[in-house]
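Objective 1b: paired records.
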Amino acid sequence: MKDKLRPYIPLVFLDYLRRYRDISYTIRFRMQYLGESRISSFLSAAKAFLLPTKIIVYYPVRPSYAYAEFKMCALLGITISDRLVSNAQVVHRREFSTKCETPDELRNINAGIKINFSNIDISKQHVESVFEAVFGYPLAIDPLSHTGQFVRKSDENFTHDGLVMDGPLREDQIEDGYVYEKLVDNSVNADEVMDIRIPVIGQEIAMLQTKIRPKNDRFSNNNTIVKTVPPDTVLSESEIEKMLEFARAMALEFLELDVLRDKNDHRLYIVDCNSTPAFGPPPGMSLPEQAKYMTAVANSYRDLVENK
């Protein structure tokens, strides 16, 4: 119904409505994550959207209020827009496609800061290839010769369709559009596994998440416990550098990695990479943990958009 009515609604009214909602959500997030009073949050939000000092253009997809980009800008007092102008201060490219080339309208834009402007390929095959080149050991397996359990999942992003299978497979069991990977034993006990979610903003990992979930629901995001921890409590110095090297090899300045540590070989495995991460914050995280996490990643984002 809203889409049908949109052509008949004056643009000025739509702009007013969006500005009102932006201010309302900014007030909400500043109260929730910064602990500000309603009046203080209102004054900060009104200043950001009525007297902006920095505007970030998100193109071609503006972040919704559920996404971390909006929440970080709310905490930083930064105005967001989806109107591409040639002299924009910051342009942050947001694409939900698994593979996409840089659009023509972005190639020659004279923005002060450009984020995620390179051709994007976050397919599982490409992630596997870059991971092996950076870390020196593979995640991918050959399902025709692999004996024992492994994981089959879609090469496309945002599918959450992982399936544990037994190998080796026959030729007629191999399906196009899927990848076949090592089943990483990231169990913490008989019933639960732990994922590590790592946001890389610029060349910084400010905080990461450890996510405990049931083993029989390992490919979902149905967490039972989520904690925010400094990276050096989970990763070694060399592992942190490898994560940053992986981000450089993917040619992305803003991304999120899903990482597993195998309890048998103790190695890390990057199993997913997102250029439009929804890390703000995941189910299972307490409000104090959410506040700690969002303020940490917001500070990293400020450094990125201010080119520090």
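Objective 1b, second protein:
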Amino acid sequence: MLRDIHQLRDAPPYGIVAVEGLAIAEAAFEAATKFVPYCPEHLSVWSPQFAQIILDCASQVDSLWKAVEQTHNPSSSTDKLTIKDHWYRYRSLVSAQKVIFFGGSNPAVIEPFAAWNGSSFQSPAWWQAYNKLKHDRFSHQAEATMSHALHSVAGLFLAIVYSGVCDLALISAQMLDTSKNGYNPWAFTETGLLRDVQFTCRTLIDARHFAHPLGVFGVSDCNLSNWWDSHSTRFNIWWALNGDKYTAKRPSPKSEA
């Protein structure tokens, strides 16, 4: 079904706060990489700036998902919800999702919730770093690595997209990039949520340094070509070079007898 405009207008205001928090986190990571440039060789480098990014992003993920639970179940208490509760509610949505990071000389594929691909609970490494830093920042300062900071920002990005309550905020922030053909993403989802838009729509959530195509990852029948005609040139080029890795093989044309 198409999502009614009133449903978008009734979206909780904390969605805007979450998206603004993502923008601040991206800017903070960009500022930190002016001192420690992003490259694979620097992923294990730690910095107090990375510590603050990890603490901010992980706490925002926790706050956002608790707020969503409170929105859906107003009488419930969310104070005691843990990362394991979030795993139970969101693992099927985010475990297979990938974010493309464009903040370095070469794009990188980030999977912040890959630890949730298994059948039993496992806390992501960046969340483990967050817990250690939260309880004793001085003793665990070496946990504040570039890799953990990068994954925490990507984790916040996916938490927002797959929360199901931040669609209006994403639109308002001009992060929703439909194809140049002008496809209506709400014609490609039965729930009316951006997180459920199918890959055939070729819709992108595009942030300052991150991009995420909707409906592509975690499905077995994505058979898109390596052509993607969004308004994001960087993503179009990345997809042209890498799309084959994330799609099913297209059937070969039958030759005429």
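Confidence is low (pLDDT under 50) at residues 1-6. The longest strand covers residues 210-213.
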